[in-house]
Amino acid sequence: MATPNSASDYTLVDSHESVLDLIKVIQPLPTDIPCLFLDLEGVNLCRHGTISLITLFIAPHSRACIIDVNKLQAATFTTAAEDGTTLKTILKSPTITKIFFDVRNDSDALHHHFGVRLAGIEDVQLMEVATRFPNQRHQVKGLAKSIELFAPISDDEKMKWKAIKKKGKKMFVPAKGGSFEVFNERPLSKAVAKYCINDVRFLPQLRNYLSALLVDPVWRECVAQEAANRVAESQSPEYEPHGSDKIMAPKEWRNLN
């Protein structure tokens, strides 16, 4: 189990039985509030690489789960409860909200490796752009900058979050002497687990803070539509997972009031 202030405790999902246990936790969750916050890690995470781990934070239970896709492979998504529910059907459901921060490469990898067409997506990165003043919507912000500027948490929590993020990058960024293969090393190290959980544990607070600023229903619809556009784009043959234009905000947003 994990608490919102913990970056070390989690449930490892790496067997048929633990996938079924996770589905049982998700099934009774309310669908009228956002409950599922996700992030993926892998070796060159996109259609050209692999998926190693899915980190899932279940907000109503303050519960963090790390799903070992590297071990389970297709069984991650096809293991079915008695009523036929799988993680794949949950991810594809338009009525079950899933929250990501920049869904594009996660969606690309899920679709091309396991045939998962995401639906019911909120993208917190887009929410942040939409809350800005006109003429300030040119580039998107990363998760670290968004946490630093907007997450309604203490300065001490932000410092700890940043330290875990920095340590994690040294483990897997090649330019910093690391390797993405750390996500495939088993048993999963505590440092890697901390890094994964760190990326989702404050996402509910960040999402709720930005959502409260999106009072204009027109902008709410813009954010929802653009999240769907990102998913569709990520599944297209033309999508460039590491394209330089990914830092740009939606073009049609840049001068809207």
From TrEMBL:
Cross-referenced SUPFAM superfamilies: Ribonuclease H-like
- Record-linked PANTHER family: RIBONUCLEASE D
- UniProt record, GO biological process: nucleobase-containing compound metabolic process
Extract the coiled-coil ranges from the record. none
In its UniProt entry, what is this protein called? Ribonuclease H-like domain-containing protein
Looking up InterPro entries in the UniProt record yields: 3'-5'_exonuclease_dom, RNaseH-like_sf, RNaseH_sf
User: Which ranges carry the 3'-5' exonuclease domain?
Assistant: 10-215
- Upper taxonomic classification of the species? Eukaryota, Fungi, Dikarya, Ascomycota, Pezizomycotina
Q: Which molecular-function annotation in GO is an example for this chain?
A: 3'-5' exonuclease activity
Q: Which domain of life is it from?
A: Eukaryota
Which region ranges are annotated with the description Disordered? 230-257
Biased segments, Basic and acidic residues type? 239-257
